[in-house]
């Protein structure tokens, strides 16, 4: 009795799942065909994106260094004024880690991008699609790391404003 | 035998002394060639070339590199006041603005739409 019920459930599942599977298969084939057809333009778009990202990486790296220098100088000034530098030191250290994470994420992203560009999308669209998904993940990770670093600069700013409220209006040179 | 060797040695020394400049030049060329090979190998194998925008073919990208000064110096010793913090805040706000402007990683780039992989049926290929 039990086995008969199991078999009928299995049959029902197969009946309903089969069209879904066929549709998914069709979509995969259609996508691979599209990748294969647009291979040349895809390569051009990827090359353009890689160049744009390299500029972005260079500019961000420069700005991270500038920000880190500012954090270090401000923390030093706080220390020299016998105020508590702890929150600033902590945030500056977190920022350094975040920028290191960003650099490493970018290298991983760029590695996967190079791998993606090496794949012949005309003859191996499935491989290309798989690598494209991986590259997207690494690009998202790079974006995540840069967002985290930017958020830390915001936290540092908040701490600065809090400290500012406790200080006299004008005491030092600037 | 020994005399013969000494004679050869003296002859070689005389010869070397006469061509001292040529030998020095050859050593200098050889050393600079070896150093160039080593540095180019490190540049290539280490993957540093990938982040080098001074390569040929990257003229357009070079123009997009920010020219913000990197040698800004800050006062780290004066007494701290509200006005003093303001100076740092202004600088930080500028950096934050730049960070926001330079970050291109969040603007898609690899989505199906950006790569024009949506075909005629956008939903079908997502």
Number of domains of chain B: 2
Shape of chain B: elongated
The overall pLDDT average of chain B reads 87
- Number of distinct helices of chain B: 4
Biggest interface, chains and residue tallies: A-B, 66 and 52 residues
CATH-level-2 architecture of the largest domain in chain A: Up-down Bundle
The share of residues in helices of chain A is: over 70%
- Low-pLDDT segments of chain A: none
The CATH topology of the largest domain in chain A turns out to be: Four Helix Bundle (Hemerythrin (Met), subunit A)
- Distance, first to last CA of chain A: 89 Å
Record field, number of beta strands of chain A: 0
Estimated helix fraction of chain B: 40-55%
Description:
The complex is a heterodimer of chains A (174) and B (126). With 174 residues, chain A is an all-alpha fold. Chain A folds into two domains: 1-37; 41-166, Four Helix Bundle (Hemerythrin (Met), subunit A) (Up-down Bundle). Chain A is built from four helices and no strands. The termini of chain A are far apart. The mean pLDDT of chain A is 89. With 126 residues, chain B is mainly α. Chain B folds into two domains: 1-65, no CATH class; 69-126, no CATH class. Chain B is 55% helix and 0% strand. Chain B is built from four helices and no strands. The longest helix of chain B has 26 residues, at 20-45. Chain B is elongated and about 90 Å long. The model of chain B is unreliable at 121-126 (pLDDT under 50). Chains A and B meet through helix 1, helix 2, helix 3 and helix 4 of A and helix 4 of B.
